[in-house]
Amino acid sequence: MFRAPLFLAVALLLLTGCDGHSPTEQGPARPIPARFRLQGSATSAESDGATVSCTLDLIFELNDSPREAPGLLEYRGTYGGGMARTVLDAAGNGISLWPDVHGRVIARSLAPDQVQITFPDNVSSTSRFWRELAQLQGTLGTGDTATGSWSCAPFDFDSGGWVDDRYTARGTWTLTPAN
User: Which pairs with CB-CB distance under 8 Å and at least 24 residues apart come from 97-104?
Assistant: First the structure.
């Protein structure tokens, strides 16, 4: 059964957002560069003497015509580059993984100063490493730069004496325009 008062209340909440301001009151979303680079690093020193270090170095190419909505610009495109994860025990023995990556990306600018980067192919991965990289959230700073944090989780494997299933490192990333 349709209840008009409840429907109207829900619709008003959706229109005003959680902070009580409509998206148009926050101003327009800021454009994201059509080509940008995302670089990041994460490190961790564990209580058992193990260390984890990770890097991201990705180039993004977005389409020229974003989907527009109040307070939102959504771009689709592709990305490619490299990632690295090294896990060493207290004696300095361990594993280092350096996957080259390429895939689809959705980049959103949300008013007034948020950026969201989604990697659709990572969402349903069985590996925590890829699931943690399914979506990155950040803040647009001055100019065309943005910063955010990320978690470098294990690849979740134990095969032939090579193991990466325990430690997560936390770090930061920076988005800058690329030529």
Answer: 97/155, 97/164, 101/58, 102/78, 103/78, 103/79, 104/76, 104/77, 104/78, 104/79
